[in-house]
Design goal:
Layout: E1 2-7, H1 11-26, E2 30-36, H2 40-45, E3 50-54, H3 58-64, H4 73-99, E4 104-108, H5 113-120, E5 124-128, H6 151-165, H7 169-178, H8 187-192, E6 196-198, E7 216-218, H9 232-239, E8 245-248, H10 257-271, E9 275-278, E10 293-296, H11 302-305, E11 311-314, H12 318-327, E12 331-333, H13 340-349, H14 364-376, H15 380-391, H16 394-407
Parallel strand pairs: 1-2, 1-4, 2-3, 4-5, 5-6, 6-7, 8-9, 8-11, 9-10, 11-12
Helix pairs in contact: 1-16, 4-5, 4-7, 10-14, 12-15
Length: 427
């Protein structure tokens, strides 16, 4: 089996795809990764064939467009719309080229994958790391930060999103013409009318009742367990004192990093805790810092690091949230954008974390209070979640689905709009 793993976005979007591709290879299959140029070096380190889907650096783009890439859904949609119009032809051409000779495409946000799969006559599986990627009256769309809204309001937001994405119909059809494919009527249905793998813990997320019968299969999270050891300097620092608080916001960017760093340092100081700070794409840790703060400039293997922390303060991305849950460590969520607000709400409802603090509302006092609150929570729900996630294997389930789909390809219809795609619908 030869699979193209296509991902569009930042590290949180691409990392699970790299994990899937690595496991596919270990299972005796071939896997090619298609992603922005930022991740070419990482794929090379893992020995994975890599096809650059976009020459523009995602990190550079986010930093240049920081005001647009915010929690304001209208600005996010405008940003995404301009990006799609500018980059769509490149995505289509390169995705089709990378998928040539493949038996299936697994796509995390790469809009061109559906058309490429149609052109090649192979199945395309979408990947969602949060239910908010997929329409339901029970939650708002991913770029809307509002939780606990009435079903009618959620439905209205989905209607608005479908109309906004509908503006992509024209450039999508222009790209499809270049591939020799017919036009689609609506971009939203075109992009999302494929079977989806929900790479999330089915007991953490809420599976909506109105998904019943749809080709959406929860697999569990796709963990990337970095084989690299912890940095020797970090190891020595950890051994030299009490378990610290980890603070890291991954690929999130900020317009006042010095102020954010001060807030983190002061908030932890009120707790009397050491701080292990991940620089991330924002560049946390600028300026003179007290001795109890250690700044790490590169990525760290969370699976090895988090179990040694007193608590983890992070942005609430799906991958970081799942890793912290698997480690069984107290969490504080500081959501910035997208589904981070959803995960902050779910952890609150399940007694796994205190109420999240949106990054624009973060202060030293609120951070210290949230750390107090997370340490005071009943540890039983955390322990149960950790045991469940350690026992599960979302990537193995995803590979089994792909293998069954390819095996049954002769009996399976892969034309758009049909349910018979080798996936078990939500029941």
């Amino acid at each position: 089996m030869r699979v193209l793993v296509a991902a569009l976005g930042s590290r949180g979007d691409v990392q699970p795809g790299l994990a899937l591709a690595s496991r596919l290879r270990r299972a005796g299959h071939e896997a090619i990764v298609s992603a922005p140029v930022d991740f070419a070096g990482w794929a090379a380190e893992l020995g994975l064939p890599f096809a650059v889907s976009d020459d523009a650096s995602v990190e550079k783009l986010l930093k240049e467009k920081i005001e647009d890439f915010s929690a304001n859904p209208l600005r996010v949609l405008r940003f995404m719309g301009s990006l799609v119009h500018e980059h769509m032809p490149m995505w289509y051409a390169r995705t089709l080229e990378a998928a040539d000779g493949c038996d299936a495409i697994v796509s995390a946000g790469q809009f061109a994958s559906v058309s490429a799969a149609e052109k090649l006559g192979i199945p395309c599986f979408g990947v969602a790391f949060s239910p908010t990627m997929l329409r339901s009256r029970e939650h708002a769309p991913i770029m809307f930060p509002w939780q606990r809204m009435p079903p009618g309001v959620n439905a209205a937001m989905w209607w608005f999103l479908a109309r906004a994405i509908g503006l992509m119909t024209k450039p999508i059809n222009a790209s499809r013409r270049r591939l020799g494919l017919g036009p689609v009527r609506a971009a939203f249905e075109h992009i999302f009318d494929v079977p989806f793998l929900l790479a999330a813990d089915a007991e953490l997320v809420r599976i909506p009742a109105d998904w019943r019968g749809r080709a959406i299969t929860p697999t569990g999270p796709w963990f990337y367990d970095d084989p690299a050891p912890l940095d020797a300097e970090v190891e020595a620092w950890l051994a030299a004192g009490d378990a610290p608080v980890y603070v890291g916001f991954g690929s999130m960017v900020h317009d006042d990093v010095a102020r954010l760093t001060r807030i983190i340092v002061e908030g932890a100081a009120r707790q009397g805790r050491r701080v292990l700070m991940s620089k991330g794409w924002a560049g946390l840790g600028e300026g003179q810092l007290p001795a109890y703060v250690k700044v790490v400039h590169g990525p760290m293997p969370h699976a090895k690091l988090f179990p040694r922390m007193a608590a983890v303060v992070h942005h609430g991305g799906s991958g970081t949230t799942a890793q912290a849950l698997r480690a069984g460590v107290p969490q504080v969520i500081v959501p910035h954008i997208m589904d981070q607000f959803y995960y902050a709400e779910r952890l609150l409802q399940l007694g796994l974390a205190p109420r999240g603090i949106p990054v624009k509302q973060l202060s030293a006092q609120k951070l210290a209070a949230a750390l107090d609150a997370t340490f005071a929570l009943d540890p039983a729900p955390r322990r149960a979640a950790a045991e469940r996630l350690r026992a599960g294997d979302g990537i193995a389930r995803a590979i089994a689905i792909l293998e069954a789909s390819i095996k049954n390809r002769g009996q399976t219809t892969f034309s758009r709009g049909e349910e018979k795609r080798g996936l078990s619908p939500v029941s």
